[in-house]
């Protein structure tokens, strides 16, 4: 294994961190962190416990370090998604629950717009166990997809429970299409030639790669196994590839044969939750962050994540780095330096008060 390519440069004070968004305003870099919960003094440690009535901190980059400069209302935070429509700038937020036990999984997902120097709420959506937003465009049409839902005994959905795709209609988003999954986790969009693909990850209902047929998204390929968490698409060496992370099984590389994705390589075993593709000059890297193995009732918090490098027909493991119940990673370049930010959500003792980490990528 070569010298390590990730150098930790800052710890960010977070609690139960779940996801990251980054953007620039007036040439200043910002970072927002969705947080699930904080620890409640005196209560036993439990990965689905804690106080979820918290916020999503916003950090501003100053001299290669992030300094907290504000926060968004986001209880039980799972995701913050930054996107633009024309010259307008938006943040979409998703929270899985409210309360500190008992919890309510019927929530309100919000979209904020940057107006007059502040983030102002401009639209709310009735959501149920909301996980992740994904903004994308097909031609001139702008879409925003929400992955949501759970199947847990004793939890009743009074809000729509299936994952949904919304379309921008000028001043707001309206429902465009519903996906019949029961425990949605993520969406990923990619355009390959004239083909528009949207991957949907689901924990219990099987995951899918959908194809745009000119009117709606239809199924191109199904992946029936449980535990789906995320997909990533990329083009390399004249071929079209896809990586699928499954928390319960393994992370797998697929190659597109013109009609479907065919398994090409198994990268790692269970525990992978999120993926981050990084292009560094002529090199291509894949960061796989690892969350837990076992079950929510008896979890084993994963303490290590991996960096892979593309070697022409697959990925080779080149580095590992210490994490703690890692949930997401995002890469960006600032001042000619490439960074990687990783959210950590749980300590080995299942406590939420774990710092997230900013790394410099030395590649």
Automatic annotation (TrEMBL):
Biological process (GO), any one: signal transduction
Repeat in keyword set: yes
Organism this protein belongs to: Paraburkholderia pallida
Full protein name: EPTP domain-containing protein
Lineage: Bacteria, Pseudomonadati, Pseudomonadota, Betaproteobacteria, Burkholderiales
Pfam families linked to this entry: EPTP
Superkingdom, natural source: Bacteria
Keyword Repeat in annotation: yes
InterPro entries per UniProt: EAR, EPTP
Keywords on record: Repeat, Signal
Cited PROSITE patterns: EAR (PS50912)
């Amino acid at each position: 294994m070569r010298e390590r390519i990730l150098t930790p440069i800052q710890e960010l004070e977070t609690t139960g961190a779940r996801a990251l968004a980054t953007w620039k305003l007036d040439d200043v870099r910002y970072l927002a962190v969705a947080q699930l919960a904080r620890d409640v003094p005196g209560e036993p440690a439990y990965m689905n416990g804690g106080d979820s009535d918290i916020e999503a901190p916003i950090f501003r980059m100053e001299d290669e370090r992030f300094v907290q400069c504000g926060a968004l209302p986001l209880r039980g935070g799972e995701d913050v998604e930054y996107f633009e429509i024309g010259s307008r700038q938006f943040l979409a937020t998703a929270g899985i629950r409210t309360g500190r036990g008992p919890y309510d999984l019927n929530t309100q997902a919000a979209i904020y717009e940057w107006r007059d120097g502040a983030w102002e709420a401009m639209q709310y959506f009735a959501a149920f166990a909301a996980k992740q937003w994904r903004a994308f465009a097909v031609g001139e049409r702008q879409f925003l997809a929400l992955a949501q839902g759970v199947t847990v005994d004793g939890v009743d959905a009074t809000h729509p429970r299936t994952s949904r795709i919304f379309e921008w209609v000028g001043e707001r988003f309206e429902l465009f299409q519903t996906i019949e999954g029961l425990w949605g986790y993520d969406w990923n969009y990619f355009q390959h030639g004239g083909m528009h693909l949207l991957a949907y990850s689901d924990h219990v209902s099987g995951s899918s790669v959908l194809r745009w047929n000119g009117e709606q998204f239809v199924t191109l390929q199904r992946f029936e196994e449980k535990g789906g968490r995320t997909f990533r698409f990329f083009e390399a060496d004249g071929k079209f590839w896809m990586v699928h992370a499954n928390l319960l099984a393994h992370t797998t590389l697929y190659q597109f044969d013109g009609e479907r994705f065919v398994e090409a390589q198994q990268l790692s075993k269970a525990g992978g939750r999120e993926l981050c593709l990084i292009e560094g000059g002529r090199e291509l890297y894949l960061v796989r962050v690892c969350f837990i193995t076992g079950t929510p009732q008896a979890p084993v918090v994963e303490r290590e994540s991996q960096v892979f490098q593309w070697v022409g027909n697959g990925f080779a493991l080149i580095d590992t780095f210490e994490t703690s119940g890692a949930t997401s990673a995002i890469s960006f370049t600032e001042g000619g330096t490439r960074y990687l930010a990783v959210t950590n959500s749980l300590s080995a003792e299942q406590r939420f008060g774990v710092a997230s980490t900013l790394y410099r990528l030395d590649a």
